[in-house]
Design goal:
The complex is a heterodimer of chains A (210) and B (400). With 210 residues, chain A is α/β, with parallel strands linked by helices. Helix content of chain A is 36%, strand content 14%. In chain A, helix 5 packs parallel to helix 6. Classes of the chains: A alpha/beta (210), B alpha+beta (400).
Chain lengths: 210, 400
């Protein structure tokens, strides 16, 4: 059983979700993405009370409201970069919009790689493509799961910087879930024009089943 | 639509596996196509050539040989019968009409058949050019013969003895082409028709040395067989027995003999059908295995689709579309291969000149092939698709 502290993040702010492995970061993300329902308590994400969403409605809401950057990126190796983004539009039930895909790739500086397969991309390029996919549908909230895992210091700094910039452009709330202590130092406190970041530190507080 | 495109990419992201599955499915479907085509073409050829002939009277021997040689023209005849005996038979009260058939000579492997005009009208053939023969040594060519030999009206040729085309040439007596038939899709297409008397004339000229011989030979004139039409269907009960017991000839019923022939072929087709079934089953298992592995390998990718907002049904449909592609591709390939096998068989057994098997036909039964393909591929995809349907997004998050 997991109990999470209350948190209120203003739209456009950054939330750093930190804590050691197994402390419930994944569960927290799953709850916020409406992938599972809490046994008690209420969640409101992107102005949507989640308890009102069921199944297909939750899928549709997630497609619109949540942009997800998984740790392992999960770009489909069978498809080119452009097709991977098309697939995101297909999955969300949106009509195909090539212009928007190009704009998203352009914004992240990977437009030239449009026709490559994910296998032909470097780690950094692949992360940019995955981020382009995450923000393609202009979500209100971006969930980044361990974006700096297995990156060296320089690359980790770039990755965090990119996330902050991209979230800023889309005025999306950014949640970075990580056990990487470096990340906290990479986010500047109170960047001008931004609301700054807050940290939700989860502890491995396994409450015994009484 | 988009689902089909993505499914296509996923399918060919493992080209070897996909090709193997398409090939396996196609081979099974090709065997079935082949069986359907051969059965269809044989029964069509038999129906067409046997129509309206109630019984065939010829020399004693194998009744099936009589039918194969005299009606379908794919075997040599058992022997000859006396013209006199046939004339007697013609007077029998149950006999409505008799068409005489005289075999023995050929030209370039096409049979020269001595007969009467009734033979042409029996198959409702009409002339493309020229006229029917009016005297001995005039011939009318079937459409296929005329096309293959590139012979036109007024051309002359000498027949050669025997049906194989390598026999002694009857150089003294030349046949003259007076007519060419329109294609009738019957046995006539590959025959050279002439008057019964031509056959007698050629052979009598070849053997007789004086007029006395000629007179004797004229007395002993023979034909090869007679195609008989009954006045009443009741005749089938008694007429064959009458011929078989009271004359030196035998009567063979085409319908009966063909049924016997098809049941003899039946064993072979059963084996082939079982073989095709095994192939299809193997293909189904292979498709199942491929898709099952695909779901396992791509669990996280599929989970991501759920994360991106795809309902479970959409994720499952991606898998089903992959199976659909397999089914469609192998239907096309299977049909093409099946047609090719059939043509190869026709060519290999030289059955194409006999019009029995060969050539492209698309009977309605062939619809079974794509149906079977979709049934097998989609059936094999059901479990994997269910697996895809049940993929949980949580797996995506818990990968560490």
């Amino acid at each position: 059983m997991l109990v999470f502290p209350d948190v209120d993040v203003p739209q456009g702010a950054v939330l750093l979700l930190s804590g050691p492995s197994g402390c419930g970061k994944s569960t927290w993300l799953a709850l916020v993405a409406a992938l599972m329902a809490p046994s008690a308590g209420a969640l409101t994400v992107a102005a949507q009370p989640l308890h009102a969403l069921k199944n297909v409605a939750a899928d549709a809401w997630r497609a619109r409201a949540i942009g997800f950057l998984p740790q392992k990126l999960h770009l489909s190796s069978a498809l080119t970069v452009v097709q991977n983004l098309m697939m995101a539009q297909w999955a969300s039930g949106q009509p195909e919009d090539a212009k928007r895909i190009h704009a998203a790739l352009q914004a992240l500086g990977v437009k030239d790689l449009s026709d490559r397969k994910p296998g032909q991309l470097s780690g950094g390029q692949a992360q940019r493509v995955a981020l382009a996919r995450a923000v393609l549908l202009q979500p209100r909230v971006i969930l980044a799961d361990e974006p700096t895992a297995s990156l060296d210091d320089e690359a980790a700094a770039d990755a965090v910087q990119l996330l902050l910039e991209t979230a800023g452009i889309h005025q999306a709330t950014l949640v970075i879930a990580t056990h990487d202590a470096r990340v906290a130092h990479l986010i500047p406190a109170g960047v001008e024009g931004q609301i700054g970041f807050q940290t939700l530190r989860l502890l491995r507080n396994k409450l015994s089943n009484e | 639509m988009k689902t089909l495109v993505f499914a296509w990419h996923y399918l060919w992201s493992r080209p070897l596996g996909a090709a193997l599955n398409v090939l396996l499915l196609s081979l099974g479907l090709a065997s079935i196509t082949f069986l359907l085509l051969v059965a269809h073409q044989l029964s069509r050829a038999f129906d067409r050539d046997l129509a309206g002939i109630d019984v065939v009277v010829g020399a004693k021997g194998s009744p099936m040989q009589l039918i194969l040689s005299g009606v379908l023209h794919i075997d040599v005849p058992p022997g000859n019968i006396a013209l006199k005996a046939v004339r007697e038979l013609e007077k029998h009260p149950m006999v409505a009409a008799i068409i005489p058939i005289s075999l023995g000579d050929s030209f370039q492997a096409y049979r020269i058949v001595g007969t009467s005009h009734a033979y042409v009208s029996h198959y409702e053939a009409s002339l493309a050019r020229g006229v029917l023969w009016s005297k001995p040594m005039e011939v009318v060519l079937g459409a296929t013969v005329a096309r293959r030999l590139a012979v036109t009206l007024g051309d002359t040729f000498a027949g050669s003895h025997g049906l194989g085309g390598a026999g002694h040439a009857h150089g003294d007596n030349l046949y003259t082409v007076v007519g060419i038939l329109q294609p009738s899709a019957s046995v006539l297409d590959r025959l050279i028709l002439t008057d019964t008397a031509s056959v007698w004339k050629v052979h009598e000229d070849a053997t007789a040395s004086d007029d006395e011989d000629r007179a004797i030979l004229a007395q002993e004139r023979e034909i090869t067989m007679a195609l008989v039409k009954y006045k009443t269907p009741m005749a089938a009960m008694t007429f064959p027995r009458f011929v078989n017991t009271t004359t030196e000839m035998q009567a063979a019923s085409p319908a009966l003999e063909v049924t016997r022939l098809l049941s003899m072929l039946g064993l072979g087709t059963d084996v082939l059908r079982a073989f095709a079934g095994v192939l299809l089953l193997t293909a189904a298992l292979s498709v199942f295995f491929a898709l099952w592995t695909a779901v396992r390998e791509r669990r996280a990718d599929l989970a991501l689709l759920r994360m991106l907002g795809a309902p479970p049904g959409k994720v499952a449909s991606l898998l089903l579309c992959e199976a659909l592609w397999l089914g469609l591709l192998s239907s096309v390939l299977g049909l093409v291969l099946g047609q090719a096998f059939t043509m190869a068989l026709g060519w290999f057994l030289q059955l194409d000149t006999s019009l029995l098997v060969g050539g492209l036909v698309w009977p309605a039964e062939l619809l079974v092939v794509p149906c079977l393909a979709l049934l097998v591929s989609l059936g094999a995809a059901l479990l994997p698709a269910l697996g895809a349907y049940r993929v949980s997004v949580l797996e995506l998050l818990q990968v560490r």
